[in-house]
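User: Is it possible to get a 3D structure for a protein together with its bound compound? The compound here is AG3. I've pasted both below.
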Amino acid sequence: MDLWFTEYYTKNARFSIRINKPVISVESEFQRIDVLDSYLFGRILVLDGYLMLTEKDEFIYHEMMTHIPMAVNMGIRDVLVIGAGDGGVIRELTKYDSIRRIDMVELDKLVVDICREYLPQTSCKLDDPRVHIYYEDGLKFVRRKSDEYDLIIVDSTDPFGPGEGLFTREFYGNCYKALKGSGILVNQHESPYYPNDARAMQRAHKQIRSVFPVALVYQAHIPTYPSGHWLFGFASKGLDPIADLDPGWDSLGFKTRYYNTELHKGCFALPSYVKELLENA
Ligand code: AG3
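Assistant: Yes, that's possible. Here is the predicted structure of the complex:
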């Protein structure tokens, strides 16, 4: 049998992974959820046909979303995570003894249930006593919050379908209000390469920049996301990701596979075409 998962990046470019066997497929109230077992990338999670993670390379995305802000403010205690139903960001956050509370807001409970059962590699720390899971729309959740979190991580889907509201000015404005004075917002920021993704990246940057005094973008190489070149947003009320990098992070002695403090300084240096797209956003 020749079974393949294919994601279309544009009408004229697509990416395929050979599948050993489908693991589970369900239709939730919000989206179609598939877990497939692949030969090269381990199990993969797909929402509405878009690849969310593979067991082989998810460490890159989850380490980069978590350790970048944590190394800038090692005093982070209260964290809000939006989306992230697979638990990958939570797994990285729970490595820090200094964190006392993690509120996770995921729209689709079925994503969490399926990841708990079929993707233990990412969901393994969802039962940590510091983690509180709320099944609701992140957009509505942050509206009710002010001056409560040191860090907000937005691990959303792409800006179409259920994730759309998490790319709006209203949402970023409410995140600003939900953050304390030293607050940091990190979000998945799409890819700069294919035109549709690049436009989404520009729109997100434009909105974040209009709300936060510090609004920067950093990059990572993720083999199974469109173009393999992925961006993240770092926004704050004042902290600078490079000037305020805490040299004490290394002495925590964490075993990371992608993130390190040298890369931390380098990943904010962007290719000229990306800088230009962001400036013209
Ligand atoms: N978050 C979404 C990444 C976007 C991928 N886009 C795509 N394949 N078109 C992933 C969730 C991981 N915790």
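Residues 3-54 form a domain with the Spermidine Synthase; Chain: A, domain 2 fold (CATH 2.30.140.10). Residues 212 and 236 are 6 Å apart (CA to CA).
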